[in-house]
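Researcher: Go.
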Amino acid sequence: MAVALAAPAAGAEDMLADPATLDAVQVQGDGAALRAEQSLTPGGVTVVDGRDFDARNVTNMADALRYVPGVWASSGTGGDAVFISSRGSNLDATGYDGNGIKLFQDGLPVTTADGNNHNRFLDPLAARHAVVARGANALTYGASTLGGAIDFIAPTARNSAPGELSLDAGSHGLRAGRLTAGGVSATLDGQVSLEARQRDGYREHARQQRAGMHANLGWQPTAAFGLRVYASHVDNDEELAGPLTRAQFDADPYQAQPAAVSGHYQLNVRSSRLAAKASWQIDARSRLEVGLSWEDQALYHPIVDKVMVDFDGPGPLQPVEVFSLLRQADQRTWGGMLRYQRRSGDHDLLAGINLADTREQGGNFRNDGGRRNGRSTFADRHAGSAEVFVVDRWTFAPGWTLVYGAQAVAATRDVRSVDAASVDAASGAASRVRADYSAINPRLGVIRALAPSSELFASVSRLYEAPTSFELEDDVRGDGIALDAMHGAVVEVGTRGRMQLAGEGSWHWDVAAYYARIGDEILSVEDPAAPRTSLSANIDRTVHAGVEALAGASLPFGGGIHRIEPQVSASWNAFSFDGDAVYGDNDLPAAPRYAIRGELMYRHADGLFAGPTFDLVGARHADFANTYRVRAHHLLGLRVGMERARWSVFGELRNLRDARHVGMLTVRDRAGIGDALLHAGEPRSLYLGARIRF
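Model: Structure:
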C-alpha cells in the first residue's frame, strides 16, 4: 500500500523520540508511525512499504512505483531498463540519462554528481521502504532536480525477520530467488541478502540475468549513538529489444527491432557500493547524522548497429560503415551527507549538506554485433556538486505551521571528448566543455491542521537543475559554450488525511495540485545541420502542471471477518511548451495525459486476499511536433494470495484481456510514420511467488 508521508532523512534505527520531526522519517515499521509523519511537508510525498511487494510481482522500478501518483515509469521489455518521469521530468528525445529525479539509499546519494541515472536504478526489493518526494518537496534532501527524489531505506536485522526466503516464477521465463539472513547480538546487528534473477522477457532479444548481494552491519553502543555500514554488489546483464515502427508493431509487437538483434543491443552493468552512516542523538532537542558513500560502476552498452551506406549505388564498391556505437565506461562516485536538527520552542530547524564527485573514463567504440570494433572516441568526464539547505518548521499558532527555508546549489561540469581517428588521447582534447552552476532556491509553505488526522497545505518554491555531462556533450550548437541550467517556480496546494468510518472502517486521501513555469528546460530537439537527428538545447519556456491523487479505504463487514480495500492512484498531466517560436503551445511528449491505476481487494481475517487490478492510461505524443500520437489503453488484472505470520503466497495475472499496447516509447523532434519509436507493453502474464520467514 502506498501511504502519504513526509520526506525522510534517517534509517530505521535513526529516529528522534518525538515523531513530529521536520522532513525526517522515523521508520518504525507500522502504518500508524508512518501516517504520523504526514503533517511534515507542504506538498506531495508518498511512501511505499516494501512488505507490499510480497503480495505482487515486482521485477523493476516501474512495478515498485505503480501506486505513486505523479510518477510515470515504464519498461520496454519488463527488465531493469526503465523510463521514469516525475512531474514531467526527463521528457526528452534521448532519454539516455534518466535524469530529473535524484536517488538516495538510506539518505546517501546514489545518483551521480551530474544527475545521471543511466547506468542503473536501485533494486526496490532491497528496500524496506521507498519514499518519493516529488518536485520541490525534495529540497530538504538537497535534490536540485525538476522531479524530486526517491530514498530507498534498507531493512536491518532490528526491524525484519531473522531469515527469509523468497521464490518467484512465471511467464516469459521468470525465475528469481532471494535469501536473507541476519541477527542481533547486544550492540551489534547484521543482515545479508543474496539474490538471483533470470528472465527471457516478453519480447525477442530481451533476456536478463541478474545477481546481487546487499549487506549492512550496525553498531549501537548506546541509545544515543549508532553506526551502520552498508555494502552491495550487483551484476546485471540485460538484452535490449529496441523500438519498433508502427507497421512492425502492428504485425508483431513482441518482436525485436532487427538492428537490435544484429547489433546485439545490451545494457550490462557491474556496480559495487560501500557506505557508512553515523547518528548521534546529542540531547533531547538536537541530533546529528553524517554519512559517506563510494560506488564503482562498469558499463558495457552496445546500442547502435552498423549504419551502412553504398556511395556508388549499383557500382562495384561495397557499402561502407559510416556509424555504429558501443559505449563502455568506468564510473566512480564519492558521496557524503550531513544533517543537523535542532528543536527550540515552536521551531524545528533542519540544516544539511550533500556532496558528490563523479569521474567517468571510457568512450565510444564501433559496434560489431555486440563486440568492440575499434575505438571512435575517448571520453573523460568529471562532475561535482554541493547542495546546502536550511529549513525551519515554525508552529506559530495552534493548528498552523509555517515551513520556510532555502537551498544553495553549486555544481561543476568538465566534459572532454577526443576523436580517436584524428587526435591522440594523450595530446589533448578535440572538444571540451567546462561550466560552473550555482543557485539559491527558496521555499515557503504553510500547513493548516483541520483535525488530528487531516490537513490543508500550500507552498511556493524555486526549481533548479543543472545539465548532465551527456547533455553538455550533446549540445546542438557544438560551439563549446555550455547549456544553461533549468530553472523555474512552482506553486502547490493540497490536502491529505484519514477519516474513521462507522464499524471500524476508514479511508485516507492525499491530493495535490501544482503549477510550474520552467525556463531553459533542456530538451533534445532537431539538429538543423542533420535533419531527423536530435541534440540538446535550452527551450525558453515550458509549463509543468498536474493533479495527483492517492486514495484508499478499508471497509469491514461480517463482524470484521471480511474487508473490502480499494486503492486508486491517479495523475492528470499538463506538460507543454509555452509560446515557443517553433512548437507553440504543443504538449511535451512521452508522459500520458492521465494515468489511473488501482485495485479492489477482498481480504479475509485468516489472510486470504483476492481482487481485480486496473490501469487506465491516456494518450500521449511521441514527438515535440505532436504529429505522432500513441493511443490510450486500458488493462485489467487479478491478484490472489494468502498471508500468514510465517509465510505468504501470491498469484498475479496481468493484462487479462491480452490487450496490445505501448508501454514505453522513444521520442523524436518530428516523428515520421516509418520511425522506430514503440516498445510493447506486457502481454497476458502469470506470476507466482512465495515468502517464508524463519
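Model: Residues 3-34 have pLDDT under 50 and may be disordered.
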